[in-house]
Design goal:
- The chain is α+β, with helices and mostly antiparallel strands.
- The protein has one domain (about 1-255): Aminohydrolase, N-terminal nucleophile (Ntn) domain (Glutamine Phosphoribosylpyrophosphate, subunit 1, domain 1, 4-Layer Sandwich), CATH 3.60.20.
- Helix content is about 25%, strand content about 30%.
- The strands form 3 sheets. The protein has a 7-stranded antiparallel β-sheet.
- It is globular, with a radius of gyration of 17 Å.
- The two termini are about 25 Å apart.
Length: about 260
């Protein structure tokens, strides 16, 4: 599975502090029971420049083996004026480590990071025009969401309706994701209650597929597990909860799905 991070707020964001606290999770972040330690199958850091989605770095190699590149990417991000930042450490569940399979994904200046597995994504998530660059269920999930909501006058309402539909139609371990168009950052937590692995319980999923947020005077930080070096006050997301924030008002508005 994976570890993900998002920051939104008024630049300059607390990027150095947060990315430095996030880095150890590539090796020590929580993993599912019975899995080997580490989220070492690629990493990426993304943001926005003049309204365009950009990569500060994207590597298919382990972050633990490319620490200097991670530090350089942190500096590039910290020197930017991005209002939103996403970062991700991948632990591959299906598609092999490859640059095209590495989060965050970009499309039409939107960006997305996810952790969990969506079963049968190729058949269940048909795309009208967007073409995946890699072979992950996560990228297809992103492109499918984008096609459904990007042209809506109220994309948050459209996303809420879509998430309700997904629950009825898809089978997944988790939908936990971060999504941004530069003007907003959406964060969602939901673990699935179908197709358990051998020996797996619903409690196991509840304890692993987590998402929390912390606030600063000018930003909000989302992470798959609390970064206590950044803040001692983290708020866990309840199951099936969507948060939406804007950089101008970085206070999460929570919507129960």
């Amino acid at each position: 599975m994976c570890r993900l991070l998002g920051i939104a707020g008024t630049p300059p964001l607390p990027i150095r502090e947060v990315l430095s606290a996030f880095y150890p999770l590539c090796s020590t972040g929580c993993v599912k029971k019975g899995m080997s330690p580490g989220h070492l199958d690629g990493w990426g850091i993304s943001g926005f420049s003049a309204g365009r989605a950009v990569y500060f770095a994207r590597q298919s190699a382990s972050a633990a083996d490319t620490e200097e590149e991670y530090r350089q990417a942190t500096e590039r991000a910290a020197k930017s004026s991005t209002p939103v930042l996403l970062a991700h450490f991948r632990k591959a569940s299906e598609s092999k480590p490859a640059l095209a399979n590495t989060h965050p994904f970009h499309h039409q200046d939107w960006m997305f990071a996810h952790y969990g597995t969506i079963y049968g994504a190729a058949a269940s998530l048909p795309l009208a025009a967007a073409e995946p660059q890699g072979g992950t269920d996560s990228e297809r999930f992103f492109l499918w969401i984008y096609e459904q909501i990007h042209a809506e006058t109220d994309p948050t309402r459209a996303l809420v309706d879509l998430l309700k539909k997904i629950r009825e139609e898809l089978v997944y371990t988790s939908l936990n994701f971060l999504l941004s168009d530069g003007a907003r950052l959406w964060a969602y937590r939901e673990f699935g209650d179908k197709r358990m692995e051998k020996g797996e319980t619903l409690k196991d999923r509840e304890e692993y597929y987590t998402l929390s947020f912390a606030t600063t005077p000018s930003s909000v930080i989302f992470c798959s597990e609390p970064l206590t070096a950044v803040s001692a006050a983290w708020t866990p997301f309840p199951q099936r909860t969507l948060a939406v924030v804007t950089p101008q008002a970085p206070v999460p508005q929570l919507v129960k799905i």
